[in-house]
Amino acid sequence: WTISMNVYVPTLPFHSQALWSQYTNDLNFISCYIENIAGQVWFLIAGGGPTVSIGSSILLTPGVQHNVTVVENGDDYYLFIDGVLAGTATSASRPQNYTGTFMIGGGEPSPRDTLNGYIDEFHLTNGVARYTASYTPREEASPIGEETTVSIIYEITHPYDDDELFDIQTAQAQDVTYCAHGDVFPQKISR
Is the pTM of this model over 0.85? Predict the structure, then answer.
């Protein structure tokens, strides 16, 4: 699988800020986050066997858009920053069936883990390791960083949850996807 995104942070955080994560508890989770004021990106899997832990050798620069990509290819895990291989790990550990919500721009167990910045071009590809060596990220026209910094969490959840923390909600069940925004009744999209 491959998870890729563009991220912009105006300043580096004083505490960890999640790019994406899913938790069951402190011992069972998968997470990709920016670690403190150094600007280092970390990818972690905990639970279900050996822990996977990759810290990027490349640091994020505040005020600059970066592409962050995590790839699983068999027992090999890769972390890329702006298309450059920034860390690897080998482990038979796999993400588990975590009970928490998959969150983009936020994380558990603490709301302080919410990203103070922008996320754009979030792509999740199941079953395909798109990159195993350095590559050139796609150039996307993006308004990232052109407005006042805000923190928004996007949650994949049940289609009829009404959680005030989230501006957009989507859920998929078999071949049907539901999407809700604000006070708009969830819309059903099917193929």
Answer: no
